[in-house]
Each structure stands twice: as C-alpha cells, then as structure tokens.
Amino acid sequence: MASVSIDHIAIPTADAERLILFYKKLGFTINDEKEWREGKVNIFNIQVGDSKINVHPEGYVAAYKGPTAVPGCGDICFVWDGTVEECVKLLNDAGVEIIRGPGERKGARQGGIVPAVSLYARDPDENLLEWMIYQE
Fold first, then answer.
1. CB 36 within 8 Å of CB 57
2. pTM of the predicted model, to two decimals?
C-alpha cells in the first residue's frame, strides 16, 4: 500500500470572512460555512476537487494542528483545468493580482515530465497560491 493523494491540508486565517469572500470569488465551494456561522462547527473548508483545505478561523484552538502555524504560512498549488488565458481572466475578474507568471514550471504529473505553465498570487492572509496548467 502507498499514499496516493491528499485528502486535506489546513491553514489558519486572521480574517475568516475576508477569506471566504476571496475563495468564493474564485469559484470555490465553502463547505460547512452555514454550520460555522451558526456555531455548530469550529472550522469550515474550501473544496478543491476531491480534496479540501480546512480553515482554522481566528481564535481556533485544537490539540492537533501545527504548533507554529500562523496566517500566511500556506503555499498551495491548484491544478487549473482550462487554458492559461482562462485562468488569467478568472484571476483578473476576481481582482486578484498575479505576482508571477505565467511561466514554465515543473509540476507533479508523471514525476514532473508533463509540461506545465503556472502563475502565482496571494490570498488575503498572504498565503502563496499557484495555479498549474498542464500542457497535455
């Protein structure tokens, strides 16, 4: 047996409302938002394909989390299922500044041999975000 994918990662946020708005503008689904707002759960998450990003809102306390995790500690790469131009348009339309790219990058597919282009931005907590566009 081997590890075959990532189920979830977790990031803290300094401003949950701002983070929810940001990711919704980019078309992501926010799971458990209603329950979090109602105080029924302590966290919410951002759905990414078959994986998710658990968000630890300000003031969140738990025994099982990175002991030095602070807002802005994340470095997340999304796979974009479309063209570079479509990804640029999405980010521009959402008011997200592209800080690098598009440029050639080595992704994870097939051990890094599938050609890819990526671009970078930051979310409201300054987490580094990358969109990888495979050129298959």
1. yes
2. 0.92
